[in-house]
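Appendix B, record 7
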Amino acid sequence: MLAPGDTQVVAVVEQPRPTRYRRGRAPNFRLGVLGAVLLFVGLAVLSSLAVPPFRSADESAHGGYALAIAHGRIPSQYERVPAQIPGQRQPTHVYTTVHPPLYHALIAGPLLLGIEVGKPLLGLHLARIESALFSAVTVALTAVLAGMLLGRRRTEAVVAAATMATLGIFVLSSSLVYNDSLATLLSVAVLLGTLAVLRQGLRTSGCVLLILAAAASMAVRASNAEVVAMAGIGLLAAGAIHARNRWIGVAQGIGWSAAMGVACFAAAGWFYLLNQARYGHLTGWVSIAYDPHSPMYDAHGYPYPGGGLSFLLSPDSYLRLARDTYGDLLGVDRVLPWSNPVTVAGLVVVWSLAALGALWWLRQRRRLGPTRARQALVALVALHGVACLLYVAWWVQAGGYPHIRYLFPALPVVAVILARAVVGLPGGRWWAVLVVTVQLVLALGYLAKLPAQWTGESIWGVYPAALGKAGVPLPALVTVGLLLIVICGWLLCARAILTRQPTRSMISSETS
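Structure tokens (predicted):
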């Protein structure tokens, strides 16, 4: 109570004003994502031009399959088709015909065009660049995934995209005629569609786009069945979470899931039934591992005597996957004798910063009241990563080698986690630039090492020599131009990362 004549003193606490951003701030973010795409495209085109034609038996098989598709037929995996492009295995075992033909139909055009005009190697390089463009879209979608999971944390989105763009094995595999590039793109698209449905509810437009992405993904690779199944679970969860009447929402989710199943069967079911009729298995891979008549029989053997379970429980499995992610630069190498210490130092820097960032975030974060939608988002993303790892374990159990390429659909999630951990450190934007720079150096080392080993050229002359063999005029100038694209991409990424961006989260806004 105040006595007469007393005055009341009111403490005015000045609320922090929201940071005002100039109109150019959002374009900085967009330019950062564009920089990550340019960074990837420059590296991938360099790789596609420098790797000798059909160095990999898989690329030879994919190329033979695509040319068979161009002539209107799907050969059996037991067939041997004649080589039509210089460097292709003669004859080519088209064991990749156990995959659905969507990817091969898309790359058949450049390959056939090169043969028709009398420049088959040009057609091969165009097909490689087309594959790289699929992965360039994946790099951009990684930024979208970061925005979906972290909200308007634009710095983390640029860092995540740049991290994907500078993974050496991702760049190399994407620049070859492999269906991993399109399979990864569509897998990430299905993941994004599922997260959008969980966040916004069962809107017709979102559900239709998700169904189309799921159907296309099943028409590229059977391994995408895990993300399609996860999308079905997401539709059910979205109906239960967002509908006023939970049971009506679940019924709507079941209806959309059934529609997705029908679309997937219409797009690719006929092909899996063809595999069943030919090989006794929907995917055909079991016959590859165990059928003595298969060209891949006993080609790999078991890397782990205990099969898939041994793979999951062995620390060596994860060390091997980490080594393959950075291009196997950890071994002693005659071309780049300094690659071992440089790579070890780079990995220590990148993942130490990630670990410190994660610990800092756990220490600084405020307790949130998690919503059911947020819990479902986290659960589905975790399920996606586990499912990708289980697929690799299944492949090991079937007798195959655990290629890191089979984990590509999970790498964008890892990139987002890495970006959030590093940017969360004090001065995190500078640490993020360091991480992207280290990854770029490792990627350049990887892309210089392998062609130099395969061609016998020096690391300084391998790219001009490869461009000259491909018939590209002024190969030295073109090499410099591609390197300038890489540098410009890095500069755009660095500028966007160092520019302060809005950090209000759309999904998990932090409250006291």
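Remarks on this record: Residues 54-498 form one domain. The CA atoms of residues 107 and 167 lie 24 Å apart.
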